[in-house]
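Example record for the data management plan.
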Amino acid sequence: MSKYNVVDLFSGVGGLSYGFSKMPEFNILAANEIEKDISIAYTLNHPNVAMLNCDINQLTEEKFQEILKGRRVDLIVGGPPCQSYSTLGKRQMDERANLFMQYKRILTILNPKAFVFENVSGILSMDKGRLFERIKSEFESLGYQLKYKLLDAVDYGVPQHRERVILVGVKGENKFEYPQPTHGEGLKAYVTLEEAIGDLPEIKSGQTNNSFDSSVSNDFLNFVRNTNETMTEHSAPKNGEHLIKIMEALKDGQSKDDLPEELRPKSGYGNTYAKLWWKKPSTTITRNFACPSSSRCIHPRDSRAMSIREGARLQSFPDDYKFYGSDGMKRLEIGNAVPPLLSKVIAEQMLIALENS
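Corresponding structural encoding:
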């Protein structure tokens, strides 16, 4: 029987919910997501969770009373949209950068025992570090003891370097302990691209093939294939002839600076028009993981942009996890998510902390 009731704010497609949903001790009562298609995707995967598809500003005490029906909330999880904080984009102290105050407002209404606030590493240096200090101060004013740490998803079996700040607040003594890495130096080797997507069939630009190329051969595939005999979304984006020539000219891990002069694009950052490494984890994937002109995302073996299924695999989403909307929307759902394998270890540690307090 569930002991702890959870609400997920800024839920996205449900990557952070995933770990909590797989533990019988947690019961996710409600989730909030502003984008309609993303909220539908969340509900496809978490059908028993009440979805509040609206701007978080519209979540009132009355609305929660209607949904919760007298049940207390023990834990709030979630992280405001990270575009304002990201070191990849234009960093702005705009309205989105202050969405943590809406998070605080919901904490005030629901008064949970604990919360998990997740965001990109750039939040630590935003506004010369003043923003994060303010966030901590606002949460502490509600009586929460705080701990925070920068975790890299690759250390927990995700085939991708993806740093996230995990800020945990607990009323009373904060006994939350951050999960110990399971992969890395002296531990299991990092999960490589080959191990994560090598069982998917070779396809070229514009092609689709939803059959598996080989059987399960490692722990990661055992997790994502999930006894699933079928697969979807393994379609390569259709690209023009010139881009295909660029992708085919690159060797493993190379970028546009390694291209012959006649093929080299005149613009683009150092990590654009670049191949991933077959024998290493991926770099951080974003919503642009099918767009070589915007990110390092060229398949090292097949010399093409990544399929939606491959993007989902690099985030550690199981093959039966559903995405919804246009292809661009599905890539947004995947690129903005917390990797399920990371959420799993956070949920496990949060259970221990709640039990101990």
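Summary line stored alongside the record: Residues 4-184+338-356 form a domain with the Rossmann fold fold (CATH 3.40.50.150).
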